[in-house]
Amino acid sequence: MSEDKAKEKETEAKKAEEAQAEEKKAEEKKAEEKKTDDKKSVEERKAAKLERDTREADKYFYPNKWARIVLTSAEEVMGPQGVRSMLNMAKIPQYIDNYPPDNMKKEFSFGGVGQLQQAIWDMYGARGARVFAVRAGEQSFQVGLSQFKSVATAAQVAMRVGSLEAKVKLGLEFFSKLFNTVTDQVVEVSEDEKHWIWKITHCPVCWGRVSDEPVCYLAIGVLQAGLSWVTEGKKFRIKETECKAMGHEDCIFMIEKVPVE
Ligand SMILES: [Zn+2]
After folding, report:
1. What are residue 197's DSSP bridge partners?
2. How far is ligand 1, taken at its centre, from the CA of residue 204, in Å?
3. Do 90 and 35 share a domain, yes or no?
């Protein structure tokens, strides 16, 4: 009798084990399916982005002057011949030796900005694009700012008082307003405990591009330059955590509140 019971127990245990294994298998299968689904939906989102960006390539614009600044700072890095090749690669040869005029008219399309960024990426790789972006960002910022002297001076006076955190907050609000006013780029600023969050919903830098990694280095370069101006030379760690080029909804940049140096 007790032997039977032992056997029964053994069978029960075995059954339970089998059921468990079965369950685990089902779970694994589900996870695998979800992975393929996620992958598929990422690819679908990227395809939808490309389609929309192509359709709306001439709907949103940067001011001529800002595009001109990007080109002249590119010239400093790669020389006039380099810029010519870049404009060819970006499929906007109409700007060869014919930079956009020095005015604030919104005429340089987001499509063009994205193609330029892609050409830089193709010519110099991800690392080169990063180096270039920091340089171009700084220069764009300096020149851009000189166009808004009265506003900038007022902002700087306001930023003189208060803590570092208050300065950065005011600065980011000021920059986002500037972008939202003089370009068709749309920026929202928010924060969590450790970061300032810079969200671009209409991003020219990755316009028409898809990628497995974030690509909006130019935005990081400009932010870095802006924050350095606001804080008299402090450097902040900035990371693009989500990028429309990867199929995300927006381009999101996390700025650490505590500066590096
Ligand atoms: Zn972007």
Report:
1. 190, 254
2. 6
3. no
Q: Do 128 and 222 sit in the same domain of this protein?
A: yes
65 and 43 inside one domain: no
Ligand 1: distance of its center to the CA of 217 in Å?
9
Which tens digits make up the pLDDT trace of 78-100?
A: 899 999 999 999 999 999 999 99
Q: Which of 174, 183, 239 is nearest to 213 (CA)?
A: 239
- Domain coverage including residue 200: 61-256
Which CA distances in Å does 206 have to 46, 112, 218? 12, 10, 10
| Pairing mode of beta strands 238-242, 186-191 | unpaired
CA of 45 to the centre of ligand 1 (A): 14
CA of 126 to the centre of ligand 1 (A): 15
pTM of the complete model beyond 0.70: yes
